[in-house]
Design goal:
The chain is mostly helical and 221 residues long. The protein contains 11 helices and no strands. It has one domain.
Length: 221
């Protein structure tokens, strides 16, 4: 592997992840720093609470594409199902959570769920195509159904994110045991751990019963 190529992709991935979409939208629409209002996150839920659900959806799409594009490129054209592809996704999420392309205070970004999804989807598609095993399809389908059910029943992103990250870690751990995919699970554990850390305020609110209901956030505007 050419180290220079890896460093190039990681640098580009971090910079793409650092594009502060939510911050830019709220700054343009309201003239305020989104990190000073609501949940103080620049993620889609807080954007929706400040500017309306349409802008929240735009934020989700853009945050998703920040990792989906580079991961898809390196997965399909360069490294495939490999831990280096995972590193590209990890650096996209790091850029989103700790963005440098943002005014002071720098490195204060979002929580990384949409950006993590942008990494997971191309990887899962490639995994299902490479290892067309029934348990993989059933596991991915079950995780998706249960995640949607948790989101609809509890209407709290913190709870849904906790389930999703825990499920993803277990899935990739089992995948590594059953296939020839090596070390990718370690990178996925790093991504999931970073997202869980970024949600630490959500866990406190869940514990105290003060976590905001998702529908209320999206219907404020």
């Amino acid at each position: 592997m050419d180290a220079a190529v890896l460093v190039f992709f990681l640098a580009v991935s971090y910079l793409l992840g650092s594009i502060p979409v939510g911050y830019l939208i709220v700054k343009w629409r309201k003239g305020i720093d989104i990190r000073t209002v609501g949940s103080r996150s620049m993620g889609a839920t807080n954007v929706a609470s400040q500017c309306g659900w349409r802008w929240g959806i735009i934020t989700i799409i853009c945050d998703f594409l920040k990792s989906f594009i580079p991961v898809s490129v390196v997965a399909s054209l360069v490294w495939g199902i490999h831990w280096t592809t995972g590193l590209v996704g990890l650096f996209c999420v790091i850029g989103h959570v700790f963005p440098v392309l943002i005014p002071q205070p720098r490195f204060k970004g979002g929580k990384g769920v949409a950006t993590t999804a942008g990494f997971l989807i191309p990887m899962l598609i490639l995994i299902m195509g490479t290892y067309p095993q029934l348990w993989i399809f059933l596991t991915i389908g079950t995780i998706l159904v249960v995640w949607i059910a948790i989101l609809r029943l509890f209407k709290r992103m913190g709870a849904a994110s906790l389930f999703l990250m825990a499920s993803v870690m277990i899935f990739f751990g089992v995948l590594e045991l059953k296939t020839h995919v090596t070390h990718l699970s370690l990178v996925v554990f790093g991504i999931a751990g970073l997202v869980l850390w970024a949600h630490r305020a959500n866990w406190k609110r869940l514990y105290h019963g003060t976590e905001r209901i998702l529908e209320q956030e999206w219907e404020k505007q």
